[in-house]
Amino acid sequence: MNQQSQLFYQIALTQIKGVGDIIARNLLDIMGSEEAVFKSGRKALMAIHNISAKIVDAILDPEVFRLAEKEMKFVEKNKLKTYFIKDNNYPLRLKDCTDAPILLYYKGNADLNNQKIVSIVGTRKSTNYGNSFCETFLQDLALKHPDVLIVSGLAYGIDIQAHRSALKAGLPTVGVLAHGLDRIYPSVHRKTAVDMLEQGGLLTEFPSNTEPDKHNFVRRNRIVAGMADAVIVVESDMKGGSLITADIANSYNKQIFSLPGRISDPYSRGCNKLILDNKAGVILSADDFMDNMNWSNTTTKTVPKQKELFLNLTEEQQKIYDVLQQSDSTHVNLLSVETEIPVSQLFFILLEMEMAGLIKPQPGGMYQLI
Predict the structure, then answer these.
(1) Is the full-model pTM beyond 0.85?
(2) Whose CA, among 46, 70, 236, 354, lies 20 to 30 Å from 3?
(3) Measuring CA to CA, how many Å separate 282 from each of 196, 207, 255, 257, 331?
């Protein structure tokens, strides 16, 4: 099947009424491919455990193909990149999340599998305190890690401040949208969004003509949380989207940090509560953050030749060792791709190497040589 046909069926899979990301993944696992979901016929679909007749009818509805064809034209016309859940270039940190989107639409030039990714979120009513922190934090972070990718949601307040501060610091930044790539919401952020296409990008799971409805922002938040090594909450009241993002990040076992503030400041209450409840670590500066993430050492790790001569590694261990020699640290999912070792098997090998004193784990699923 050529790439065009493959993309058509991938888009079609996201257009089935009543079929979300988890059901779609189950269908893929059972049927073997996106094309097979639609070509197996009613009898084969009805034989699937826990699939109702209503869902089967929705899969076979001709409207699914009409919508997929329409979206295909939009993707081609606007030269969008797409990432399907089974693709090797799909954002690997996000791929591990059980409710990860089946398909992502992207326009930009940032690497969504960057070595280091940080999500910054907060209130839409940010103050000078939060805005100033974003700018100073990202300027200082850029001095040590000029390629770290900054992710946020392009919303008012802390989100847009994070994007603009990243651009100013020369860092790539990606905005995750709660609508399709046929619009920018809010529209006043259009200029920043255009700048981000040159120094980052715009990412969404939603097809064109999707309105920025309230429930879409909650879905958007899981992408912001899932694709990063760490989530930083800069300012938040006791309720809000940034706290939802922090909760989601916690369920994904991500590192979460919170900027503390005065107890009398409304938009520090949520941040202070995250710290009080041990749901987030305190963040005061870029150095503080880098220490917590074990990112302080920016020099490339070299292993003495004498040590290499006495290593007695298995074939799989040697593959891992060779990859880790190329950088400070590497995410487990990237290791899986580069070594062609399944993640489930990789964890056991990494544990053996850790016990042997060859490697050490870092926060956010990263590993480095000792």
Answers:
(1) no
(2) 46
(3) 29, 37, 11, 6, 24
